[in-house]
Design goal:
This protein is an alpha+beta fold. It has one domain. 14% of the residues lie in helices and 32% in strands. It has one helix and five strands; from the N terminus they run ββαβββ. A three-stranded antiparallel β-sheet has the order 2-1-5. Strands 3-4 form a two-stranded antiparallel ribbon. The two termini are 22 Å apart. 21% of the residues are buried.
């Protein structure tokens, strides 16, 4: 399982979604990214787990059980 974390300034990262594969996660982030700014931050689509954040991190993570997070979100889920 892969975990997607949202970043904003100096705030602690926040787990916002999980994915079955890294490829799915990266494809989703690419779709959700509206703009890459010169300072390295991003603007994301509205109504996505990344809305309001300025960056992301991801990592392979253990199965989190039944957490209340989007799993494998897709553009069709908007």
């Amino acid at each position: 399982m892969w975990c997607l974390y949202a970043l904003k300034g100096r705030q602690p990262r926040k787990l916002v979604a999980t994915f079955d594969s890294e490829q799915q996660l990266l494809a989703y982030v690419q779709w959700a990214t509206l703009a890459h700014k010169p300072d390295g931050t991003r603007t994301f689509e509205q109504k996505t787990p990344l809305t309001g954040y300025t960056g992301f991190e991801h990592e392979n993570c253990p199965d989190l059980g039944s957490v209340d997070l989007p799993h494998n979100p897709t553009p069709g889920m908007l």
